[in-house]
Specification:
The complex is a heterotetramer of chains A (355), B (320), C (327) and D (518). By secondary structure, chain A is α/β, with parallel strands linked by helices. Chain A has helices spanning 2-37, 66-82, 96-109, 121-133, 159-174, 191-207, 224-237, 250-262, 276-284, 296-311; strands spanning 55-59, 85-88, 113-116, 137-141, 152-155, 179-185, 211-213, 218-219, 241-246, 269-272, 290-293, 321-322, 326-327, 329-330, 336-338, 343-345. The longest helix of chain A has 36 residues, at 2-37. In chain C, β2 (160-161) and β3 (164-165) form a beta hairpin. The chains are: A alpha/beta (355), B mainly alpha (320), C mainly alpha (327), D alpha/beta (518).
Amino acid sequence: MKKLTMILFAALLLVGILAGCVAENSGSSDSGGDAEAGGESEGESVQAGGEDGLDIAVVPKLVGIPYFNASESGAIEAGEDLEVNVNYTGPTQADASAQVKVIEDLISKNVDVIAVAPNDPASVEPVLKKAKEQGIHVMDWDTPADKELVDLSVKQVDDEEFGRHMAKKLVEAMGTEEGEIAILTGGLSAANLNLWIEAAQKEFDENYPGIEIVSEKIPTEEKQQVAYQKTLDLLKSYPDLKGVLAVSTPAPLGAAQAVQEEGLQDEVSVVGSALPTDSAPFLEDGSLDTAVLWDPGKLGYLTVALGKMLAEGEMPEDGQEIEGVGEITVKEDGKTVIMGPPADFTKENAADFDF
Amino acid sequence: MKLSKESVLGLIALATFLLLAVIAPGFLSSNNINSMMFQLPEFGLIALAMMVVIVTGGIDLSITYIAALSGVGAALMLTNGYGILPAIIVAILFALACGAFNGFVVSKIGVSPILVTLGTMVLFEGIILAITKGSSISGFSEGYSLIGNGYYLGLVPLSIVIFAVFAIITAILLSKTSWGRSVYMYGSNETATLFSGVKNSRVLMKVYLYASLLAAISAIIMTSRYNSVKVDLGSSYLLQSVAAAVLGGTNIHGGYGKVIGTVYAVMIFQFIRNGLNLLGFHSSLVDVVIGAILILVLAMNFFSDKFKKIAETKNAGKAA
Amino acid sequence: MKALLKQKEISILAIILLIGAVLSFVSPVFLTIGNFLDIIEGNVVIGILAIGMTLIIITSDIDVSVAALTTAVAVSIGYLFTFLPDSWISVLLLFLIAPVIGLVMGLINGLLVSIIEIPAIVVTLGTLNIIAGLVLYITNGNYVNSTNFPQSFMAFANYELLGLPILIYLLAVVAIGTWFILKHTLIGRSVLAIGGNTQSSVRVGIDYKKVKLFVFAYMGFLAGIAAIAQTAYTKAVDPNGMLGLELTVIAAVVLGGANIHGGRGSIHGTLLGVLLLAIMQNGMILARIDTYWQNVVTGAIIVIAVSYDHLSYKRSQDKLAKIEVEA
Amino acid sequence: MSEYILQMKDVSKTFPGVKALDNVQLEVKKGEVHALIGENGAGKSTLIKILAGIHKPDPGAKFYFEGEEAKINKPIDATLKGVSIIYQDLSLFPNLSVAENIYIGQDSNKKPWKKINWKSIKKTADKALEELEVDIDPNTTVERLSIAQQQLVEIARALAFEAKLIVMDEPTSALSSSEVEKLYKVVDKLSSRGISIIFISHKLKELFRVSDRFTVLRDGKYVGSYQAEEIDEAKLINLMVGREVSYEKNEKQVETGEVIFQVKDFYKQGNFKDISFSLKKGEVLGITGLVGSGRTELAQAIFGVNKPDSGSLKIYGKEIRIRSSADAVKKGVAYIPEARQTQGLVLEQSIINNISLPILNRMRNKLKLLDRKSEVQLAEQYIKSLDVRPALPNLPASKLSGGNQQKVVIGKWLSAQPKILIIDEPTNGIDIGAKTEIHKLLRRLANDGIGVIMISSELPEILAVSDRVLVMRHGRISGELGIQEATQEKIMNYALNSGSKKNPSEALDDTSRISQGV
């Protein structure tokens, strides 16, 4: 029995190693030229777009949340318009290690471009390096990765600007430059959320010294229900609370729900980053004052469009007009692309959007 | 010839491998084989740790947070300018401290492991949050990143070699040492081991310490590979590692479980995860397939046991 | 035994009172009725699930698929909303359909545990993966918000009777109903019996496979009801919203004195367990404890509670003198 | 109407690997007390489990209740036919109340949603307990009762069922003499009411006191049924074992030497008090007493698993402290527990692994790894010297018979080369042939210089093996007897009534509690 086990195990290892060696030879012989030429991709892809075009992989932080679903449809649309194969795939949880594995599998698939929205910029660093070594074009979108590594960085907005913008909007909604506010966040370890919160805090410190943040940022597990409960608790323990700044897409909804149910629409202002369709019921009665975000579909579209340019050896220019997106800004470093200013969704305009 | 549970599982692993080699494009490419070898060790080590605990009839729900805390230990050292070796030592010490705490409450106070580790899971998570404030610690030295990303002799990923070494060590410890034997005996009947002069509490303590050591090794590979650590490092491996151990033939009630079975199970998981990704399956379907395999294999065991019993009864009837 | 149960529940009650005392000292809002209603309403879902889990743990099994089950039913509810006419009959119909969907899924768990004899933790680990994966695949994680809900359901969700939210009544009905089953019906006594001694139950003619089937099916049934509660409470269907809730549910049940080895557990104990966890969650913000330290405190309290409980159990066992030694 | 309440005809049962029953017959008349006897492994339990509906017989078996053929597929079928079974290890629910334990099962055939009628449960329980004339609060949970009380609850349950046929499997093994007497009265009362009883016991004297007829099984085969008047004890033994037996007297073969082991002032609250004794080289010390007199607790205290509150130990004159079982092994004290299957052996594991368990540390090679070869050697050595059958070192212990399992446990402890061996009920549940073998073995060990302390309830065994007898009563040593002066009467006297005079014949009756055995 033992022998058989050993033999089986050895065979399994051997098959693996042999297969590896064999494939290594063939792989190394054509992989280089393949990627340079940007031609021929291995068959059988289930992605959108043309049969023989470029393979562009777009990796979100996770699949299966509305925000990234919206950007998926934009990316797929771009694939159809621009006749490239778009492979939109990511982990089911916002887990850095799972994301690395997805990227590794994409490298195995030998795609031409990988655009990643890293859960943790540092953790994708080694695997992006590996991708580059394989001749794959590497870019980031939504959340920046290591600047040195990526060929292109696509950003919806400027983080600093976005954070400060939300802070200003909150003060505007409160109608006073003094009072207590609380900050809700999706998760304590989300890098871009932390950047926004820092920027917002800076804005408060520098321009609104009368604003007092009552507690450390409060995590809501990216769940509306948790944001709702935490806000209820906040409203009780800080009866003088004037405003709530909620970053991450479910958080403003939960906060607004709590305000709505307590009937505090006029006393407490809520401002946060949320999609307009989700926010509509709360914007309606003023429980959510302003939702600040961008069109994630456009962001997906832009990512694919820029990915195609990158693979074809072009670089975007400042002020360039991208079809389907609009005018973009390119920063001094030549590779950071900003899609545009943040969009404010309010009672008046929320109905005009379909995302 | 009758096949052992483990050999059948080995055949299933082989079949999965061959099937995917045929249907999944790029499955056999050197790149892909390599990336599988890079991906497997961190999960494999956690699964082995879980298996050792399950053999005693327990379970360690805190194991992934032990790994994360140990990773935090390493990261703190590295980012504060200490070398690789001190970082590794601190990582292991952090993990052993957690393991000792679990071991103390389980073996000395006698609370059932599932309750203890349910509590310590939250506790360790809290400690990490308190240390890191939820953000990630990243940016380690080039040398450190070689542990998880480098090649041994330029051929095989170093991490898979580390995994193989620890798998072999675990196998030897379990089957060739008095501690290992005691672990199995304790898992089968803890009263009998007590009445045989076995120091049950010491055996258990060592089990939790060893599991946390494996978690630390896994943490070192993960932190090196991902160049960062935060509170959820490896947390998705928790229930998966239980699934792998059980699929590998480990008896959830204790007393039985082999390293080789768990290794096969980990390989099956790896092949499927990777193969389905290559085939462009939605990631959530991977979970569905793994869940289905777990239930199918155990149902198969049940029916084959049943047939065996029927056959034995028939034979006995004939003999009489 | 009676004294022992009492003692178990008293110890958790003592912890609750202690924390409560500290909290009401730190925060004036803690002891308000409004706060308590919020706490209870916010934990109706966990409460309902924990009640179902109590029965499973009494039979010395465990079910880690509850959160996935509830989510699956909740997603089905969201889907149903697109069909059902906007009328109060739809709400009633929902109370018929949702529990049945849950029941069917619970039955699958139960069949695998009782007939195929796969250990419950393995079965439910498998179904957890399968159900959660399918839900995510089918919905792609999209959530349905209240704009798509029928007005009749919103009216139900916001309904208050005698100043108490309707969900609190729902929890009360489930708790009392399950207590009644456990205390006053044959099947309920059988649940306790097979938890106490499976072999004996076989000998006195209790079909323990049927009882196991029942507890898992009942868990599914309650998951269906919990799904309605969840939908009514969050006024949205979020396929990711209950991720990892199963461990909280289990923690609540064992804190409430149910023995993971079977035979012991009570509905009121479980409700106390839920309350303890809920108060800790609520209290952290009220007590203005740094968010980063919340888990440390929660984890420490769980470890201390289970250790204390075990030690006092051991002590009471030791006190049962075996032999009357002559003076 | 048939005169038989129950007829079981041509019952066979095959388990994987063994034929447990081969064409067995059992016929029980209405209102009679029917003794079912046979050695361990003769098939009594299997037959009862088939009657209970727990095991299915091989095809061909026929059951008749009151002359009518019936099928029993599930436990509930038996219950509905009026069969109530009291197992030796009891079928109680420790977490439920006494009243509920008495009532449980009565509704098993009812709808699961049927509401429980607590009033009628209380009433049923009160009535049954009253009939038994025992004073137990029906509201307490069963786990708070003593074993004897639990047994009475079980009997009360059978009464509550108004069973037509009650099977009692070793019902008196844990009852005190007065309780046994009460039980006999109940049995008499039941049979006078027309209820039949199947009585299973090893204690032949007890059986003659209550039984009307005997059915004897041997090796899974039916030997015959006999009226009580037409048979006597000696004949029964002959039928059961197929030969005449009595325990051989194992005389001391070496001169007793120095004192090698001393226990001084052992005390543990609620367990035992003022325990002091010593053991000489070459001697077998017997300790006996009623069940619950503190013998086992004392032994486990010496072995370090039931820590005493105070007291001291000396081995070869040197004072030692034993803090744990591991400590005990290190210091040369071995203890073989009574519960062989749950405490003595790891059943799923092989004979080798069981034998080497206490001394794994000595089985290591230079690399500190286990040396399988020496383990196998060790196992083979003890398999051979103790004549374990089958002699397959890799066989799981669960596949061995009771006697062979006991030999493995003894082998396990001999491998540890103890200076002192404490053995608790060494021959419990072992057939006669193996019993004498084990008795000889204990003597041989004493001859080899190991101090042997044997705890037993079986007086013939105590008298056959010991050189000196300690009698315990209520946690104290109530008497010490040299083997020359020891008789069953004297031992019983100490066991029941420390020091005081008692009518010997009365004491003899009480031997139901301390078995006279077969």
